[in-house]
Amino acid sequence: MPVLCPKDRKHTLSESLLEDSLAVQCCPDCKGTWIPAENYETWQNQQPPAAPDPARLSQPLEVDFHQSPYDAKAALCPECSSYLARAKVNWSKPFFVERCPNCGGIWCDRGEWTILERLGLHRTIQVLFTQEWQAKVRHHETLEQERAATIDKLGPDIATQVFALAQLLEDHPNGDFGVAYLMRRFEQ
């Protein structure tokens, strides 16, 4: 029985390879990639251990990526017909990676695997679907927004000095004394 594209359910997926050893199935129309769970786990076990870092999501990448028009569309697993769960990847151009909660297969729309690979997240895709990871990402986003607001309000020169002082105080065993001093200065 042919395996159909989870996004349009019309096109038959064709056999292909990612990473020279990861057997996948690709849609000839939308260029999305279905990664069967068994193939991914076998490939993953052959890779060096990786610890995903949410801070990498804010790094700039030189890559020609255009979010797929199918990214917002719900999809059915091509293997077991369950609805695919979605995990948002909050890179500079956010997108969703999908995974079957039943059989564990993974769907990447066109270009998403390349971004995951460049961010070092391709070897630990299952982590993206955990509450712990999503909480870390939200925390990192909050820090980035706070940093951008500080630069906006103080200008880049003073903001850079504030960030450096904050790091010095954070690393110093009595840094809290310095923070308390500054707070008292601004209470006057």
UniProtKB/TrEMBL annotation:
Please state every residue range assigned to the domain named Transcription factor zinc-finger. Answer: 77-113
**InterPro entries found in the cross-reference section:** TF_Znf
Q: What is this protein called?
A: Transcription factor zinc-finger domain-containing protein
Q: Which organism is it from?
A: Prochlorothrix hollandica PCC 9006 = CALU 1027
Phylogenetic placement of the source organism: Bacteria, Bacillati, Cyanobacteriota, Cyanophyceae, Prochlorotrichales
